Please model this.
Amino acid sequence: MGRMPTTSDSRRVVVTGVGAVCGFGWGVEPLETGLRAGATALLPFSRFDHSRHRTHLAAQVPEPPSGVAASFPAWRRLTQADRFALFAAAEAVSQAGLAAPLGPAAGVFFGSSTGGMFETELFYRELARKGGRPRLSALASQPVSGPGDAVGRHLQVAGPVRTISSACSSATLALGAALDAIRAGEVEVAIAGGSDSLCQLTYAGFNSLRAVAEGPCRPFREGRDGMSIGEGAAVFVLEPLALALQRGALPLAELAGAGSCCDAHHMTAPDPAGEGAAAAVEAALADAGVAAGRVDFVNAHGTGTPLNDAAEWRALERVFGPRGRLLPLTATKGAVGHLLGSAGAIEALATLLCLRAGEVHPTPGDGPVDPALPLALVTGRPLPLRAEVAVSVNLAFGGSNAALVLSRFPAPADRAA
Model:
């Protein structure tokens, strides 16, 4: 990623279908409704016992609607992360007007952080119980590659099936890898996104780091005190513009560019100056052939932790200069929590929905914006904005930074033509 600027229609890649599962429910519609309302899905949850932890909130996915389980083979044997991935992929493929088998011209590019870890925890809990005899088959989908593999099997994808696991930037990197594969002619259709489920490993881990807020996270707000964890999946169907139009598909947006880099600074702390994050955004803009001045809004990583939000603001200042203080900013994690390996996919989808709706969704949370971060955070209600170009940013442990550039379709030049 971060290659030469876009100069030819042959490099243009569009989104023809999207799907989602999150704390608001199953499907893109409940996600969009929740985002527009400025609501939060961060509530007390029941997936596992969290009584010994200092925090007790998460954005847990509700039970699926009636009939969903019957739509997918071997639903009972799938992990939660697999189920989220399959539903979101099926919704996206249906909207794109495609169907299985997708065959050798298609590929799957997925991000995940823990895969089937929750079910693995159940396996070992049963194993430790006196007289417990857990089924070994319960570990079949334990690998982090499980969600992407499940999507590949269900859609009968005979092209590449690849999983990227780089903590919280995983799905963003997966979308970038899909973009590269289409531009290179490796695939004609890419099913790209991410999926992760709640598990005790991550919940206990972030609690032990004291990185989790006791209430819903409040990105970029004064007095913010940590992140909030969520779960779910988001999936994009990506195709070359020419082939999508040739088969009569309706593009929803253009995935114009992607960029990534590493802080090379610290395992868990971000580079305080934001240099790495800025480099990822600049690489994405260069890949898209888009000047920073053309960006209409940013969907920030916005975890709600004091250090991450501050470092990200400095990165945006580096990229956008004084204009960064006026650039509308939103943070989807305030609504659906931090989806870890799937965060980049659900946030890119939220960005796409904003482009299509002509408004930027508000960031839930109370209190004023941190005066040390003079940014234009969208709060309270959606901000009407006829945006053409937006950036979605994700930062991760290990200093893994990634960014995407999405543009509204059709672009002004297309309409003029």
Remarks:
- Residues 234 and 346 are 5 Å apart (CA to CA).
